[in-house]
Structure formats: structure tokens, C-alpha cells
Amino acid sequence: MAHEHSFASPGPAGLAALAVACFGFGAVFLGKVVPEGLPLLSAWLIGGGIVQYTTAVIELKDHNILGGNVFLFFAAFFMFAAALSTFAKFMMIKFGMKPAVHVEGWMWMAGAAYLTVVTPGYAKGNLFIFILVLLIDVALWMIVGVDSGWYGDPAAFKPVIGWLLVVAGWIGVYLAGATVCNTVYGKPVFFVPKPVVK
Q1: Could you read off the pLDDT of 79-93 as tens digits, one per residue?
Q2: Residue 27's closest CA among 163, 141, 154?
Q3: DSSP characters for 103-130?
Q4: Nearest 5°: CA angle at 127, between 178 and 66?
Q5: Spatial distance between the Cα atoms of 183 and 8, rounded to a whole number of angstroms
Q6: Which residue, 10, 71, 150, 165, could crosslink 26 as a Cys pair with Cβ 3.0–4.6 Å?
Q7: What is the CA radius of gyration of the chain?
Q8: pLDDT tens digit string along 47-105?
Q9: What is the pTM of this model?
């Protein structure tokens, strides 16, 4: 996030929006969201999508190829597509249909593969952002297996996915706050480790 911007960096807002998705999906995988909560989750994902799309456009304008492209991908698929999917599942359940989530397992494979392939780029950032991305990598590959049906009984994997996402969300919140406060004060107020790779 240490790039020159014509605007202030929207990266912290993008990380906070990522935390919204991580907490929401974490709650789903932990069994804390009943079907009647799915439309509310959809609404929050749309809000997060607006933030992440805005972040992506500004980061890309300022030549941040890694953050800009990842936020753009997240806006499209973690937020907007996931919001539509979540609402579609709710409507299907309400009308007595069982959602064929194995389709999403195949779709999530693209998201998991994309994020995994760009993960080495995050080693040039601080250790916390690198860990956040690794946690989401693992969670996404587990979601691929659960949704596609490759894992037999998904009950053992869902709590692990849920907690991986919750921890990733908290790291995102911490980094968002640290970036804003450290920038405002012009000095380290919150600890942020050095880059993994220089």
C-alpha cells in the first residue's frame, strides 16, 4: 500500500470491506446464519462490493497491479456474485428447492487458484497481510472441496473454514486501522511488521 496516490489510499476501506465478507461467510460456515439471514448477508456484501470496486479502481489508477487487481476480483466475486448467489439460495430454499452448491465449488476453484497464484506478491508486503492472504487461500480451497462435494462429509471442514475467515477478518480490521492511524500520525502507532521479502 506504500504507493503514491492522487487520492488518499482506499486500501484500508478495502480491507475493512474484506473483513465484512470474512465475518459474514465465517458466520455461515460456523452455522450461525439461518436462511432468513441470507438476504441481510447479501445486502452487506453489496455494500462491501461498492467499497472494494472503488478501492480497485483507485489502486489500478495508481499502478498498484497487485492490490488493484485483487480488490477488483474480490469486488466481483467475493462481494457482488456472492451477494447474488446468497440471495438466490434464500429464494430457492423459500420455494422448496435445494441449491446445487456443487456448481459454486467449481466457480470458487477459479477464485482460489487466482488468489493462490498472486499470493507470492503479498510477500513483498508486511507479514500480517501475507498471513491474511494465506488464510484466505486455505479457506477458499476448503470451500472448493466442501461445495463441490469432494470432501465427503463437509461437517468437519465447515468450522475450520469459518474460523480461518474470522481470523483473516480480524487481521484485515487491524491492518486497516494501523494503516489509517500510522498515516494520520506520521509514525508507527500500531505495530506493522516489515515485509516478508525485500
Answers
A1: 999 999 999 999 999
A2: 163
A3: HHHHHHHHHHHHHHHHHHHHTTSBHHHH
A4: 85
A5: 10
A6: 165
A7: 17
A8: 999 999 999 999 999 999 999 999 999 999 999 999 999 999 999 999 999 999 899 99
A9: 0.93
Q: Are 112 and 137 in contact (CB under 8 A)?
A: yes
Q: Residue 33 region, left (φ>0) first, then alpha (ψ -120 to 50), else beta?
A: beta
**Euclidean distance between CA atoms 4 and 55, whole angstroms:** 14
Using H for helix, E for strand and C for coil, what is the string for 27-69? HHHCCCCCHHHHHHHHHHHHHHHHHHHHHHHHHHHCCCHHHHH
Q: Which residues are within 8 A (CB) of 50 and not within 5 positions of it... i.e. 6 or more apart? A: none
How many other CB atoms are found less than 10 A from the CB of residue 187? 8
Beta bridge partners of 195: 126
